[in-house]
Amino acid sequence: MTGVVITGWSTVSPAGVGRAALAAAAATVPAVATVPAAATVPVGASAGGGWPVEPLPAAPVDVTALSDEPLPTTTGHALVDFDVRAHLGRKGTSFYDRATALAVVACGDALRDAAVQVDDGNRARLGVVLGTSLGSFRSTSDYTRETLVQDKPYLVNPVLFPNTVMNCAAGQAAIRHGLRGVNATVATGPLAFLDALRYGTNAIARGYVDAMLVGAVEEFSPHRAWTTSLTGQPVPTGEAAAVFLLARADQSGWVGPRREAEVLALATAYGPGGGPAADRALTGCVTRAVRRAGIDPAEITCVFTGETGPEDTDEFAPACAALGHVPARMRVSRLFGRCDAATGGLALATFLAAPPTDAAGRLALLTARSPDGGTAVAIVRGWPDAGPADR
């Protein structure tokens, strides 16, 4: 076990800003009980239960207001009316790109949710790590285009350059909230949130910091929308920032008013070329994580995957094979669209926002897989009193 707990969190997603908005969105979408037939497990194994059934897909919204450029479709999953100035004011936000704005707001809200006041006495021991695919795709593309179409080199606005750097969001979050601890960005696409979670727990366990803001962010842009469309993805493009405050369980000054959950184990692996090799890598990840967590695999009643298609079981089937039973499956892309790096963060937030149970603790398995064969998993225990809250 890692000994690291989650003491507060927040999201900025198509549902709105904050944990209450996400919980309300998840609760209002009709659900359907499905266990994919393709998820085969060893003979004699049984299907698990004890978790809310998977939601039906949420309806996308009109996103044409977010771009002056052509879009492959007029709808997507985005927070169309998001205005960073309404949350942070005008000062210092003029040149935020959308990804940075989403991340900075989510970080501030997570600090408030955990009741952490950043001051000179603790700022050096609080860090931030964010996962992403490649930072702001739009900022990078637009700046590159400017260097080609404007007179060289004078009419390229240098103020826009920082937004092209992948660690822009994490750096701006640290500047805005006065954080001087470890600052990092993990750019591993679909694995990014779980990799960031691993990075953050390691930084705490090794004593580099006492607490970490750990999260991931993806913005809605025409660039991501066209990528989704041209690659034939079955789920519309989405956007989100999900951020969690992590601290050691024995650090009384950081655990806040209550402990939300404990990160029991994490594991990563690589299956060269994807396919069967990646299946084996993911199965091995789950097996190692279960062993490190010291739990009975039967205790895991839900698997949160990054899968999008209805028949896609590239993550769920290997996980079931390792667990020896078929738990419920939750694909958060059905609620929030294709959010790439932020998908894992939304999965963890959805887990923590679920109604409390009478059990001693709820266990969930989070999985992620990249096209090149990378795999990652996390096992998290949520406590009975860590359900939705109006905070």
UniProtKB/TrEMBL annotation:
Keywords carried by this UniProt record: Signal, Transferase
Alphabetical list of Gene3D superfamilies matching this protein: 3.40.47.10
N-terminal signal peptide: 1-33
GO biological process: fatty acid biosynthetic process
Domain Beta-ketoacyl synthase-like N-terminal, first and last residues per copy: 82-219
SUPFAM superfamilies: Thiolase-like
PANTHER family cross-referenced by the UniProt entry: 3-OXOACYL-[ACYL-CARRIER-PROTEIN] SYNTHASE, MITOCHONDRIAL (PTHR11712:SF336), POLYKETIDE SYNTHASE-RELATED (PTHR11712)
Name by which UniProt lists this protein: 3-oxoacyl-[acyl-carrier-protein] synthase II
Superkingdom assignment: Bacteria
A Pfam entry, by short name: ketoacyl-synt
Organism of provenance: Micromonospora phaseoli
Molecular function GO terms recorded: 3-oxoacyl-[acyl-carrier-protein] synthase activity
Phylogenetic classification of the source organism: Bacteria, Bacillati, Actinomycetota, Actinomycetes, Micromonosporales
